[in-house]
Amino acid sequence: SGTDVAREAADIVLLDDHFATIVNAIEEGRAVFDNIGKFLTYILTSNIPELVPYLASVLFGIPLPLTIIQILAVDLGTDMLPALALGAERPHSEVMTRPPRKRQERLLSWPLLARAYLFLGPLQAAIAMSVYFFVLDSLGWRFGDRLAPLDPVYLQATTGCLAGIVLAQMANVFVCRHPQLPAWHFPLLDNRLLLAGLLLEAGLLLWIVYTPLGNRLFGTAPLSGDVWLLAAALAVGFAAIEEPRKFVVRRWPS
Fold this sequence. Notes:
Blueprint: H1 4-9, H2 20-45, H3 47-60, H4 68-78, H5 80-86, H6 110-138, H7 152-175, H8 192-210, H9 212-218, H10 225-251
Helix pairs in contact: 2-6, 3-6, 4-7, 5-8, 6-7, 6-10, 7-8, 7-10, 8-9
């Protein structure tokens, strides 16, 4: 309701003449900044378990644990909807109680990259490789044996590696909902898009593993129940290891 001169001289113009709008705008801006950080942490984490199988194959001469098409299945398929759901998280109750971030703080900050690449990522890589070697060992493979790309043993092993990454990423969604607060602090139904993304992620994984078309497109094979149990247990352990790290960060932020 101010004059044109006042509007041109102002740093902020409120369209509804209500000062609470400033508070709401700051809250929304902080929530957007936080959500982009969650999205980046979740997406970047899976880069490490996608890279380690190639390094292991080159360095140790083992059959390639993960194929290119399976990496695309993770990056362009199973990861997409949960990542987008993290970008739609509501502002947390504590978002307006903390001091403003530094003006020079970047989205790709060192703490975010360290958490994704030096902690969460290596844990996921360990899960993927553990499931891979579990399948190989259970099917009688011995170190030094060569496997053809269409060998049933190789197809099941790479499928186990893929399943380990996807299940670990499903657990990662929960720990990425906040960099410090525990996962159980946020009810799942607070973000219905996240629930839908997890269900679709699980459905897509099962389609890739258990349908003939999914097997042909992604070079996979059906897995036995013990492989799923191992992958699921390791994924739960992955989340359980991350929570103590959050506790340490909460107690000693510096």
